[in-house]
Design goal:
The chain is of the alpha+beta class. Helices cover about 30% and strands about 25% of the residues. The longest helix is centred in the N-terminal third of the chain and has 17 residues.
Length: about 280
């Protein structure tokens, strides 16, 4: 091969080498698996709730403040809606019972009371019959030292429509006035379901009662007389509401069938409940 031919061959080899130069590498294929998602920031735990305010706490405090200021009827009215609830708080019932008896047994003003001026011919007995309330309640509520009243004397007389509801299971006696809660008492009831269930009414009232056991008469003051200081007889022979000298029976089903209260509580009921007061006894 001559020199010219060798030059042509070298040129062709170089041109062919240019076609074999490396090209830019293609980008890698996308991965089929998506990249991991960074974890979300943790949600902060909710702050613990503030201590729940007991039902009626605000009303109780307001009622206590009003009572301290001598505004008894207003204090009672604050609590009355709570007392009417099916599951009323016990402390609400206790305070409203205290307020109601303070209103009842003092000259404190209240919508239920009538202001009356004594006129000629009036007696406490006549006024008690007129307002269907015991003489003892008029006397105590008006701070009278005797049954003597004078013309022109101004009296404040509570006009009630009391009723009693005894619950044998709970051993409680609830007083209502015009269907609304008034006060609740703890009682003792009959063992072995001896206390009758039904609708009754008070037909007799006796202070320092005599107890009759069979043919035996046991006077008041005798240690065998279990009736306590007062008796409120029901219209079912042999049954009534009375006191006791043994407070250990209160809250239990251990009596011979009557409803027993402490002597202090039965004295309160005796003062406030007239003849004819309805009494409901439930299981």
């Amino acid at each position: 091969m001559n020199v010219f031919s060798r030059g042509i061959a070298v040129l062709l080899f170089c041109l062919a080498g240019c076609e074999r130069m490396p090209t830019t590498a293609p980008p890698p294929a996308a991965s089929a698996t998506p990249p991991p998602v960074p974890p979300a920031a943790a949600t902060p735990a909710p702050a613990p709730p503030a201590d729940a305010v007991p039902v009626g706490a605000e009303e109780l405090q307001r009622a206590r403040d009003l009572r301290a200021a001598g505004r008894l009827a207003e204090a009672r009215d604050v609590l009355q809606p709570l007392a009417d609830l099916p599951e009323a708080p016990a402390d609400v019932l206790d305070l409203i019972g205290l307020l109601n008896t303070q209103i009842l047994f003092t000259p404190a003003p209240a919508p239920e009371k009538a202001d009356y001026t004594v006129v000629a011919g009036d007696t406490l007995g006549k006024l008690a019959a007129k307002f269907n309330t015991p003489v003892a309640l008029i006397r105590q509520a008006n701070h009278l030292s005797s049954d003597l009243i004078r013309i022109g004397t101004r009296l404040r007389i509570y006009q009630a429509e009391f009723a009693l509801i005894a619950n044998k299971t709970a051993n409680t006696l609830t007083v209502t006035d015009r269907g609304r809660f008034f006060k609740r008492y703890r009682i003792g009831t009959g063992e072995f379901s001896k206390t009758p269930v039904g609708q009754f009414k008070i037909v007799s009232r006796q202070e320092k009662p005599t107890w009759y056991r069979g043919d035996k008469e046991i006077p008041y003051g005798d240690p065998e007389n279990v009736l306590g200081t007062h008796w409120l007889g029901l219209d079912i022979a042999g049954y009534g509401i009375h006191g006791t000298w043994d407070n250990s029976v209160i809250g239990k089903q251990s009596t011979a069938g009557c409803l027993r209260l402490t002597n202090e509580d039965v004295a309160e009921l005796y003062t406030m409940l007239p003849l004819g007061t309805p009494v409901t006894i439930r299981e």
